[in-house]
Amino acid sequence: MAYNRKQAKDICNKTEYALFESSMKGEVEKLPQARVQSGIKRARTLRDKYRDLHKRQRLATRDRTGTKKGVKPGTNQRTEQKAKLFAEVLERFEKRLKVLKAEASVAAKRASKKTAGKKAAKKTTVKKTTEKKTAKKKSSKKKVTAQASSTADAGKKTTAKKAASKKTVAKKAAAKKAPVKKAAPPKKVAAKATKKVAKKAAARPAKKKVASQASAFVSEKAAAASQRQRAQNTRSKAVMGHTSASTKRNQAKRDGGKKK
Fold first, then answer.
1. Is the overall model pTM greater than 0.85, yes or no?
2. Is 123 in the same domain as 43?
3. Domain residue limits at 254
4. Are the C-beta atoms of residues 201 and 233 closer than 8 Å to each other?
5. Residues 116 and 18 in one domain
6. Of 22, 56, 63, 227, which has the maximum CB count within 10 A?
7. All residues at 6 or more sequence positions from 16 whose CB lies less than 8 Å from its CB, including other chains
C-alpha cells in the first residue's frame, strides 16, 4: 500500500517531504524533464541511504538480542518506512521520465518529418529551377545555332550571287573587248552585184544604140553571137562578185576565231 501525504509528513523532514510532494499525481506532470531527472537522483540516494541504514540497524539488533532476523517489534520501523517511501517516489519519477521521453521522441519525429518535407520541397524547387535554366540554355543554344546557320546560308547565297554577277560582268567585258564581225549574207551580196551590173548597163545606152545601128549592117548570125558573148560576160561578172563576197566572209570568220 502506497504512502499518503499524512504518513509521509509524520516520518519525513521538510526537504524529504517536499520531494515526496513533488512526486505525487498532479504535481509531477508540472515538472520539466530536468527537474524530474534531478528528483530521480535524490529519491534514489535517499532510498539507498535508508535501506543501508535499516540493514545495519537490523544487524545491530540481531547481535544485541540474539535473534536470527534482527527484528524486534517497535525498533527500526521508521527507517524501513522511509526506505519504502522513497522507493515509491523513485518509481513515480521514473514513470514520468519515460512519458516525457516518449513525448520528446514523437516531437522529434514530427520535427524531422517537417524538416525532411521542407528539404524535399527545397530539392524539388531547386530541381525545377535547374531544369528551367537548362531548358532556357538549350533553347538559347538552339536559337543561336539556327541564327548562325541562317546567317551562314545567307552568306553562301550572297557569295553565290556575287560570283554569278562577277561571271556575267566578265562575260560582258569579254564580249565588248572581242566583237565578232558580221559577214553579209550571200543573198545581199548577190543583190548588190546585180545592182552594180544594172547601173553599168544603164550607163551605156549609147553603146547599145550604136550596136543596134551596126547590127543593121551585120548579118543575123553575127548579131546572135555578139548577144551571147555579152550575156556570158555579165554572168561571169556576177559569179566573180559572188565568189569574192564569199571569200571575204570566210576570211572574216577566220580572223574572228583567231582573236578569241
1. no
2. yes
3. 186-259
4. no
5. yes
6. 22
7. 8, 46, 82, 86
